[in-house]
Design brief:
CATH architecture of the largest domain: Up-down Bundle
CATH topology of the largest domain: Rhopdopsin 7-helix transmembrane proteins
Helix content: 40-55%
Distance between the termini: 141 Å
Strand content: 15-25%
Number of strands: 29
Shape: rod-shaped
Strand order of the largest sheet: 12-11-13-14-15-18-19-20
Number of helices: 24
Largest sheet: 8 strands, mixed
C-alpha cells in the first residue's frame, strides 16, 4: 500500500524536465479543481463526502481513464462544507484571532471513496498550476486539511500527506486505528475514537439486558475496526454475537438482499449497526423493500443522528433506534449563513445549482418546461438535513477543527514575530510551513465561546464524551432525537454510563423494552449450563443440587450452603438444618419412655412384694439382701435409659454413659453375688456355717465389682469425657445431635467390663445347673445371662450401623431388653410362687429333693 501511495505521489507531483540550464517542474496529468474555493494568506484544505455515490469508469489499460463521476448530493455533508466556510469567514472577521491574516480554503469532494480522497489529497498538495517553478521542492498548496468524513478516506489522505507533515484534522473519522502515531503522525480529530464508542455501545447493550445481538458493519476500516472492537468489548460484558456481517455500498443488490434476509431469520431482536452513511442508506433501502420492522437498532455515531434517514419508510424501520453521538454544539450565526447559500452567490458554480435543484426539486435551466425555479426561493421554508440546525453535532466538530487550525496559526505567527503581541503583519503564503502548523496543533489548548475546551491528547484524540439519543415521535409525528443518557470516558469505570430517567421509545414505537436473549433467564434456584457447540449466552437451566442455592437470576453457579445450613425447597435460600435427636415428643421416644417407666414400676412392685413377704422361706432362700440390692440396681437401669432421651447437653452426655455403666456393673455384681451364694449354699458340707461366712465375701464382691466400674468411669470423664456433637457427615440434609464418646476406649472398657461380669455370672450359673429342681435359682440366672449376653452381642453391630437417633434407640432398647430379661428370669418365677402358689413357699418344698437324698 505504501509503495502504491508513493508511486501515485510521484506521478501526481510530476517530474522535472531540463530546458537548458533552467529546469521546470511540470505536473503529469490533468489538475483537480476544488468545488469551493477562496484565496487567502493561508489556505486550508477541506475534503467532504458532498456526493454519496460514485461511478468508476471502466479501465482498459490502453486508454487514459475517464474522470470519476460522483452523484447523489448529500445535504448533510454539504452543510459540513458550508460550516467550514462560515468558520473561516468568522475567523477572518475576528479582531483577536489572526488579525491581518486572511484564511482561504479549497474544498474538494471525496465522494466517500478512497480513490477520490487520494485525488483530493494530491490536489490539495499540488495546487492547480501545471508548473511550479524551476524546482520540485516547493511548498504544499495548503497548510492544513479538514476531513475527510469517513475513516477509510481519511486513512488514505493521512498516509499521503503524512510524509509532507501536512496536518489532517478530521471531523468525522472515528476509526481507532487512526490513533496510531507511528502510522499517522500528522493526524488529529475533533470527534472521539471508536475505541470508546465501541465500549459505550457494549455497556449500553448490557444495560438493557440484550445478551444476544447481531452486528452489521461497513466493509471498510471504519466498520471492520469498530465492529471488531465492539465484539471484544461485548464479550467482556457477557454479550454474545449471533452473527456479524459486512457490506459495502458497491455490493451487488443480491448480496444486500441476502444480508437483510439473514437478519430477518436471526433469533436476536437487536441489531448493532457500525455503518457509514453510504452503507446505511443501501441497507435501509433493502430493509424497506422487505418490510424489516420490529427490530431494535443500535447505531454508531456515523448515522444515528442523520436526519435524512428519518424520512419516508426508513423511519418505520428505524423507529426507536438508540445510539451514541457527540454532544450538541451551539454555533451562533450559522443558521443565517446557511440560509444565504444559493446559486446567486456564484452563478457559475455547478455545485450550488445542484444543491438548489435538489432542495426545491426543480430545474434552473432556462428551457425547462416544468418544475422551473428562479433561484430566489426561500430556504427558510425548507426542512432538510441542510437547513436543520436544531441539533448541531458533527457541524460542531468541523467548527472546532477550524478554530484549532486558527489558534495553531496564530501561535506560530506570533512565535515567528518574536512573541510580540498586538498587531501582526500579514505573512506571505510561504512564510508558514505545514510542519510548523503541525507542531502548534499538537499544543493547542483553548476554550470555545460555548465553554467547551479543545485540546488533543498524545494520540491526536479529544476527550470522549457522548450523548445517548433515542429516536422518538413528537406531537406532529416527526422523528426527533431525544437525549436519554450520557457516557463520559474520563470518569472512573462503573460511572461512565448514566441514564437520565426519561421515557424511551423502543422498536416499532413501542413503550415496552424488547427482549433479545438466546435463552430465557434462569430463575433463582437454577444455574446456567452451557450447551456444547453454542455461545455462552445459549444455555439450559439446571436446578441446584441439594444443599446448594442460587438467589440471583442467571446465576452461573450454585453456592454451597454453610455446614450447618441446608437449601430450602426452592433452592433459593440457605436455612438452618433440621436438628435430629431422640426427643420425648417423638413416637419412638414416647414408646421407649413408657417401657422404661413400666420396667421401673414393675421392679418397684417386685420390691414391694419381696418386702411384704420378706419373712417367707423363698425370699430368705433368695438372699434377700442381694435381692433388694439387685432390684434397686434394676430400677436404676430402667431409669438410666431416660437420660438417653432428650436434647444432648454436656452434662446429659456424661451422665447417660456413666450411669449406664455403673448401674449395670452394680446389677451384674449383685447377680454374680447371688450366683456365688447359690453355689456355696449347695456345694459346701456345712451350708449354715458357709453361708454365714460368705456374707462379708458377697458384700465385698459386690462393692469391688461396682467400684472398679466407678474407677473406669472417673478416668473416662477425667481424660476424654463424652460431649454433645453435631454430626453432619452421616446425613447431609440434617444435623444429628448426638453424644460423642470422647474416648472410644473408655466406652468399650465400660461395656466390656459389664460383659465380663455377665460372662462370669453365666459360667458360674451354668456350673450350678444340676442343683435341686425345686430351687432353680441357678437355672433362671443362666437364662437371664443368656438373654443379657444375646442382647448385648447383637447390640454391637446394630449400634455401629444404626443412623442418627436410631443409634440412641438401639442402645436404650438393649438396656431395657437386658433389664427386663433379668427381672423376668430371676424374679418373675419367685413372684409367681409367692402370690399364686403360696403352698410351695415352704422350707420343706424348697429343700425337698435335697432332704430326700440325705435320708
Amino acid at each position: 500500500m505504501l509503495l502504491l501511495v508513493l508511486l501515485v505521489v510521484l506521478l501526481a507531483l510530476g517530474g522535472c524536465r531540463g530546458q537548458g540550464e533552467e529546469p521546470v517542474c511540470r505536473m503529469l496529468g490533468s489538475p483537480e479543481f476544488p468545488l469551493l474555493t477562496k484565496e487567502g494568506d493561508v489556505t486550508i484544505g477541506g475534503a467532504f463526502s458532498i456526493h454519496s455515490k460514485i461511478t468508476e469508469p471502466p479501465l482498459s489499460f490502453t486508454d487514459t481513464p475517464q474522470p470519476i463521476t460522483c452523484s447523489g448530493l448529500n445535504l448533510r455533508e454539504f452543510r459540513f462544507a458550508q460550516t467550514m466556510m462560515f468558520a473561516i469567514e468568522e475567523i477572518n472577521n475576528s479582531s483577536f484571532l489572526l488579525p491581518n491574516v486572511s484564511l482561504g480554503y479549497r474544498i474538494y469532494d471525496s465522494c466517500g471513496s478512497t480513490l477520490s480522497s487520494m485525488r483530493a489529497a494530491m490536489a490539495l498538495m499540488n495546487g492547480g498550476e501545471r508548473t511550479s517553478g524551476r524546482n520540485c521542492s516547493g511548498q504544499s498548496a495548503v497548510h492544513a486539511i479538514i476531513g475527510a468524513s469517513e475513516s477509510s478516506a481519511t486513512i488514505v489522505m493521512s498516509q499521503t500527506t503524512g510524509a509532507f507533515q501536512i496536518p489532517v484534522i478530521s471531523h468525522f473519522a472515528t476509526c481507532a486505528c487512526l490513533s496510531n502515531r507511528k502510522l499517522y503522525p500528522s493526524f488529529f480529530r475533533t470527534i472521539p475514537s471508536d475505541y470508546y464508542q465501541s465500549r459505550a455501545l457494549a455497556q449500553l447493550v448490557k444495560h438493557f439486558g440484550w445478551t444476544w445481538v447481531g452486528v452489521v458493519n461497513s466493509n471498510n476500516d471504519y466498520g471492520n475496526n469498530g465492529a471488531s472492537a465492539f465484539v471484544q468489548a461485548a464479550k467482556l460484558e457477557g454479550v454474545c454475537i449471533e452473527f456479524s456481517m459486512a457490506i459495502s455500498r458497491t455490493d451487488p443488490q443480491d448480496k444486500i438482499s441476502a444480508v437483510v434476509r439473514q437478519i430477518r431469520r436471526a433469533g436476536s431482536r437487536v441489531l448493532v449497526g457500525f455503518l457509514a452513511q453510504g452503507e446505511m442508506e443501501v441497507l435501509l433501502e433493502e430493509a424497506v423493500m422487505q418490510n424489516l420492522t420490529g427490530l431494535q437498532w443500535v447505531g454508531s455515531e456515523s448515522w444515528i443522528t442523520a436526519g435524512h434517514l428519518t424520512t419516508g419508510g426508513r423511519s418505520t424501520v428505524l423507529s426507536g433506534a438508540l445510539g451514541f453521538t457527540i454532544q450538541r454544539s451551539l454555533i451562533p450565526g450559522l443558521k443565517d449563513f446557511l440560509f444565504r447559500v444559493g446559486p446567486g452567490q456564484d452563478p457559475h458554480s455547478a455545485l450550488l445549482r445542484e444543491f438548489w435543484e435538489t432542495t426545491f426539486d426543480c430545474s434552473l435551466e432556462a428551457g425547462a418546461q416544468a418544475g422551473r425555479c428562479s433561484g430566489l426561493e426561500n430556504l427558510e421554508n425548507v426542512r432538510n438535513s441542510f437547513t436543520d440546525v436544531s441539533s448541531l453535532r458533527i457541524s460542531g466538530t468541523v467548527y472546532k477543527a477550524l478554530y484549532a487550525v486558527a489558534h495553531a496559526l496564530h501561535e506560530q505567527i506570533r512565535d515567528s514575530e518574536g512573541g510580540q503581541g498586538g498587531r501582526q503583519p500579514s505573512p506571505q503564503r510561504h512564510s508558514v510551513q505545514p510542519g510548523q502548523v503541525l507542531l502548534q496543533i499538537s499544543r493547542v489548548n483553548f476554550t470555545m465561546p460555548s465553554g467547551e475546551r479543545v485540546f488533543f491528547d498524545q494520540n491526536g484524540d479529544p476527550t470522549a464524551t457522548y450523548e445517548l439519543v433515542n429516536w422518538q415521535r413528537d406531537k406532529q409525528g416527526e422523528t426527533v432525537f431525544v437525549t436519554v443518557g450520557n457516557y463520559d470516558a474520563s470518569l472512573p469505570e462503573g460511572r461512565q454510563f448514566t441514564m437520565n430517567g426519561l421515557d424511551m421509545t423502543w422498536a416499532g414505537d413501542q413503550a415496552e423494552r424488547p427482549r433479545s436473549v438466546c435463552s430465557e433467564s434462569c430463575l433463582p434456584g437454577f444455574r446456567q449450563a452451557v450447551i456444547r457447540g453454542k455461545p455462552a449466552c445459549c444455555f439450559s437451566c439446571i436446578p441446584c443440587g441439594a444443599g446448594e442455592i442460587s438467589n440471583t437470576t442467571d446465576s452461573a453457579d450454585c453456592t454451597v450452603c454453610p455446614l450447618e445450613f441446608w437449601s430450602n425447597k426452592d433452592r433459593t435460600h440457605c436455612v438452618p438444618k433440621a436438628v435430629e435427636f431422640l426427643s420425648f415428643e417423638d413416637n419412638m421416644g414416647i414408646l421407649l419412655t413408657v417401657f422404661s417407666l413400666v420396667g421401673a414400676c414393675s421392679t418397684i412392685a417386685v420390691s414391694l412384694v419381696f418386702f411384704w413377704f420378706r419373712n417367707t422361706p423363698l425370699v430368705k432362700a433368695s438372699n434377700s439382701e442381694l435381692s433388694f440390692l439387685l432390684l434397686f440396681s434394676l430400677t436404676l437401669c430402667f431409669l438410666c435409659s431416660l437420660t438417653f432421651i432428650g436434647r444432648p447437653s454436656e452434662w446429659s452426655c456424661m451422665l447417660r454413659h456413666t450411669a449406664f455403666g455403673i448401674t449395670f456393673a452394680l446389677c451384674m455384681s449383685c447377680v454374680l453375688g447371688k450366683t456365688i451364694a447359690v453355689v456355696i449354699a449347695f456345694k459346701a458340707t456345712m451350708p449354715g456355717n458357709t453361708v454365714l461366712c460368705s456374707l462379708p465375701l458377697l458384700r465385698t464382691s459386690v462393692f469391688s465389682g461396682t467400684f472398679l466400674q466407678v474407677i473406669v468411669c472417673v478416668l473416662w470423664l477425667a481424660l476424654a469425657p463424652p460431649f454433645p456433637y453435631k454430626n453432619t457427615a452421616h446425613a447431609i440434609e440434617k444435623i444429628i445431635l448426638e453424644c460423642a464418646l470422647g474416648s472410644a476406649v473408655g466406652f468399650w472398657a465400660v461395656l466390656g467390663y459389664i460383659g465380663l461380669l455377665a460372662l462370669l455370672c453365666f459360667v458360674l450359673a451354668f456350673l450350678a445347673r444340676k442343683l435341686p429342681d425345686n430351687f432353680n435359682e441357678a437355672k433362671f440366672i443362666t437364662f437371664s445371662m443368656l438373654i443379657f449376653c444375646a442382647v448385648w452381642i447383637t447390640f454391637i453391630p446394630a449400634y455401629v450401623s444404626s443412623p442418627g437417633k436410631f443409634t440412641v434407640a438401639v442402645e436404650i432398647f438393649a438396656i431395657l431388653a437386658s433389664s427386663f430379661g433379668l427381672l423376668m428370669c430371676i424374679f418373675a418365677p419367685k413372684c409367681f410362687i409367692i402370690l399364686l402358689k403360696p403352698e410351695r413357699n415352704t422350707k420343706k418344698h424348697i429343700m425337698g429333693k435335697s432332704h430326700g437324698k440325705s435320708q
